[in-house]
Description:
Blueprint: H1 5-48, H2 54-85, H3 93-118, H4 124-145
Amino acid sequence: FWACFPVLVMFLVVFWLPFYLMFYLIGLVPCCLFSPLVLLVVKFIDVCKKGKDEKIKSWSLLLGSAEGKFESKNQLSLQLFIAFTSPYRQSSTIQLISMVTSLLMVSRTKIKEHLTTRHKKLTTEEEIGKSVVLLPLFLTQTISET
């Protein structure tokens, strides 16, 4: 049995890995291209149904979380890199607004995830109140992670 193990590993690396990578890339490229459109459509449907459909609401939360984690966090990191590596250049107002917006978006995403895992059903007023209380905590966390 153990003599066949290296042959099995070589077979998997040579034959299975290229197909896996090919299917991964085939799936990744359309997701990257169409994710903003899908996000807008799902958010629009969620607003039209006023959050009554649980499946649409969960998809909306999932896509919003993905946007906050993958888009805003990377944008914030890039903007901070540009600001800190250019010592002789003053940051523009647009760049500062972009950094603050990205920071708030990442923090908002973390707060929303925290509230949905801890409290299943919250009214809008309760959610806003808890978000305001949790905002300094998650802003600090986001700044320290970036």
